[in-house]
Amino acid sequence: MTSETTETLQLHDTRTATADPRRWLALPVLLTGAFLPILDFNVVNLALPAIRDNLGATASEVQFVISAYAATYAVFLITGGRLGDLFGRRRMFLTGVAGFTIASVLCGIAWSPTVLVAGRILQGLTATVMAPQVLASIRVLFPAAEQGRALGLYGATFGLANICGQVLGGVLVSAHPFGLAWQAIFLINVPIGLVAFVGGVLYLADSRAEHAQRLDIGGVILLSLTLGLLVYPLIEGRELGWPAWIIAMLLASPLMLAAFVRFEARLQARGGDPLVALHLLRNSDFVIGLVMALAFYMLSSFYLTFAVYLQSGLHQSPLAAGIATLPFATGFFVSSLASPLVMQWLGARTLTLGFALQVTGFGIVMLSVGGALPQSLAFGLICGGLGFGTVMPAVIKAVIGSIDPRHAGLASGMMISTFQIGAALGVALIGGVFYGLLGPQPQAEDYAHAFTIALGCNVALLAVGGWLSLWLPREPAAG
User: Fold this and answer.
1) How far apart are CA 368 and CA 380, in angstroms?
2) What are the TM regions of this chain, as residue ranges (predicted)?
3) What are the angstrom distances between the C-alpha of 153 and each of 6, 34, 135, 139, 461?
4) What is the mean pLDDT of residues 434-449?
């Protein structure tokens, strides 16, 4: 879930909100609910080497710490929004905040990799109950004249969460507050969650949709099985030596996907509310957008591989590794603020520019790590960050323009879920390439080589995304 959602809703939501007298007190509480899921996705990367050493985790278990969270978020995000529509957004927001806080405690006290992964799954699940209520509540609480300002602060929250995730992770793991190491990155959520919960009780008004969509439990189950049958073998297969049952799981994944599509089609034909609006897939521009989103967000593997390269390969402290990623986060933040103006100027070609910046920036990073362009790492990261922040808000705005405004919410939900599926697959596939190249006793040069090859996979995917962006019309067609 990212700031591009704000653009979508500014384009397509024309309802007049009722001015709640406590709305500006409620806004920081709501923004905390948007801040926490993004922070927790980013902050964990810098702690992964410490987690692996302390818990004796395998490479695949480290990958699951990220991919389990992303996959759970992808599957349940749309359902979380529907829960708020059905049962009240205030109630679901408070439930999500409380659940996320409890899940963070479970992660912080985890005594084994299995318990930590279970905690991460619970974090992802409760985040999907909490996060969708934020934007929906802003739309209801604020009148039209104030929505632009509130949505601007909402969008800025994501850039701030990315920067804080990089810095805070390094600070907490290095500082050992109260004698804690990696545990602190999860336990820091407890006081934040408690403040958000109390603030929600005091200031947040309740609302729900007049015509809420029903829950698609069958779709959730089938999509969960599809992703599980794909992601689990991709991560575990390498360490287990690809036994027959792992291969069977991989082969079963497309069959489960076919069963999911068939179930959704039947549900839609009966007049139900499917998790995925299949009729949108008849729009070629929208399908291109989904493929771009998938390729783009597989870059999430970069956070994992870069953190491991810096700490295990170059023996940098978590704090130093966090500072080393700041150029990327800063570039992302700056371009996120500038992207609305760039989109007005370039339209859909903003995506082409963003992908080109990423290919150039990460190409420079590869050359720097490989020794061909020493002293250019920071410049490459800034360039990559500028491209990332340019694509992030542009991809949905460009693609949603091809969708009937009545279906903008459905299309946005599908696009954001695709982002998270891309994150899970990126960690599974490209993370697998990275760890496969390291070998049993890796040296510093092995980490550099593995990181360069893994990032090269990302660059290739980003180049595909840039090529696909050329197929989008310069001025998105309506209808």
Assistant:
1) 8
2) 24-44, 64-81, 93-111, 117-141, 153-175, 181-205, 217-235, 241-265, 286-306, 318-338, 350-371, 377-396, 408-435, 447-472
3) 10, 11, 11, 13, 31
4) 88
Cβ neighbours of residue 44 under 8 Å, at least 6 residues apart? Answer: 65, 66, 69, 169, 185
Start-to-end Cα distance in the chain: 25
Comparing 130-134, 244-248, 464-468, which segment has the lowest mean pLDDT? 130-134
Q: Name the amino acid, one letter, at 34.
A: A
Q: Which among 327, 318, 298 has a CA at the least distance from the CA of 454?
A: 298
- pLDDT tens digits, one per residue of 303-316: 889 999 999 999 99
Cβ neighbours for 325, distance < 8 A, ≥ 6 positions apart: 46, 166, 303, 306, 307, 381
Average pLDDT, the chain: 86
Three-state SS for 332-361 is HHHHHHHHHHHHHHHCCHHHHHHHHHHHHH
* Residue range 446-472: mean pLDDT, rounded: 94
Q: What does the alpha-carbon distance between residue 172 and residue 46 come to, in Å, rounded to a whole number?
A: 10
Residue burial 331-352, b: 16+ Cβ < 10 Å; e: rest: bbbbbbeebbebbeebbbbbbb
Residues 6+ positions from 408 with CB-CB distance below 8 Å: 8, 9, 11, 12, 400
CB 128 within 8 Å of CB 103: no
- Token pair in block for residue 96: 């999500």
Contact 61, 48 (CB under 8 A): no
pLDDT digits (tens, 9 = 90+) for 222-236: 999 999 999 999 888
* pTM score: 0.83
Q: Are 281 and 410 in contact (CB under 8 A)?
A: no
DSSP secondary structure code for residue 244 in this structure? H
Region 395-423 average pLDDT: 76
